[in-house]
Amino acid sequence: MTDTVIINGNPNKNSISNQIIDSYQNHMENNNIHTKRYNINEIDFNEALLHGYKTELTVETIAIQQEIQEAKLLVIYVPIYWGSFPGPFKSLFDQLLWPKVAFNMATKEYLFKGLWRNKQVRIIYSLGGSEFEHRLLYHRAGIRSLKYGLRLTGIFSTKTTALENFDNQKRQTLEYYQKQVRKAAAADLRRIKKQA
């Protein structure tokens, strides 16, 4: 059984985000937490919901839904562009939080009765500028959008980690960002153990 599902929402396969996520994943694996990682640029999914909720989901999308259903922790890594996230990630996120899989309005299984209730979530996001600007100018619009969708499924325990200044002169070293995510992983490890 998978304890932790990691979704890498960065479509750039050459980004240092892969090395950053490696640090998170390695910390969990080194502490006997079984993880399953999905990189968005390798996932077979419909990048446009041309038929809304009547769109046929791919086999891999359904498999990821099932992995999340069984996992204790969902980790999302996503870059923030102009206050929100890349289009492919938005489409995948919408398909993972699918009606009758993550929530069911007809049977009133949403919010506190959501089908994914009691799960833990960690959102790790990278920013071109500072978190202060992100909050002041954009009011964390993308992150708030993610949290809204997750709450609909019953997930209210969401922690965030901001990796600032990816695209300006204040950019830190790779090791600095890796240290941040290892710290987040250590905190998530404690959260998982409390659930046991």
Verbal overview:
The protein has 196 residues and is an alpha/beta fold. The protein has one domain (4-195): 3-Layer(aba) Sandwich (Rossmann fold). It contains 6 helices and 5 strands; from the N terminus they run βαβαβαβααβα. The protein has helices spanning 17-30, 59-70, 87-96, 131-138, 141-152, 174-195, and strands at residues 4-8, 35-39, 73-80, 120-127, 157-163. A 5-stranded parallel sheet has the order 2-1-3-4-5, sandwiched between helices. Helix 1 links the parallel strand 1 and strand 2. Helix 1 runs parallel beside helix 6 (174-195). The model has no long low-confidence stretch (mean pLDDT 93).
Q: Globular, elongated, flat, extended or rod-shaped: what is the shape?
A: globular
User: What proportion of the residues is helical, as a percent range?
Assistant: 25-40%
Task: Provide the CATH top-level class.
Answer: Alpha Beta
CATH architecture field: 3-Layer(aba) Sandwich
Which descriptors apply to this entry?
196 residues; alpha/beta; Rossmann fold; five-stranded parallel sheet; 6 helices; 40% helix; 17% strand; globular
Topology summary:
Elements: E1 4-8, H1 17-30, E2 35-39, H2 59-70, E3 73-80, H3 87-96, E4 120-127, H4 131-138, H5 141-152, E5 157-163, H6 174-195
Short recap of the structure:
This protein has helices at residues 17-30, 59-70, 87-96, 131-138, 141-152, 174-195; strands spanning 4-8, 35-39, 73-80, 120-127, 157-163. The chain is an alpha/beta fold and 196 residues long. The protein has a five-stranded parallel β-sheet, sandwiched between helices.
